[in-house]
Amino acid sequence: MRKPTIVAIDDEVDFITMLQDYFAPRGYDIAVAIRGAKGIEIVKEKKPDVVLIDLKMPGIDGDEALKLLKSMEPSPQVIFVTAYDDGGKTKARLLKMGAYAYFDKPIASLKELEEAINKAASR
After folding, report:
1. Hey, which residues does 102 pair with through a beta bridge?
2. What is the tens place of the pLDDT at every residue in 82-100?
């Protein structure tokens, strides 16, 4: 079975590196960007199954990126991975806007994230 293609957009270089170090050796095609605009360019080019994205970034933030991603054809599944916490209001809003899932940083389990990616890609 083909592994999902992933694009990760996050301004934290250490986090992006950790994702690459985890997913690439497991056979996933993963591309990364540390800026929202660059990430959107990569998504347009690669047409990934899943986009992992941070909420708060310079330039295009997660809200704006989600709207752009959901307007694309084909539209990738979007999973937020963020340290932003407002008691769940943002999580509920993003899920209602079409995000597939929402994970808090620091990630408790990359295995759980991997499972969510695989489920999202199979939709």
Report:
1. 80
2. 988 888 899 999 999 999 9
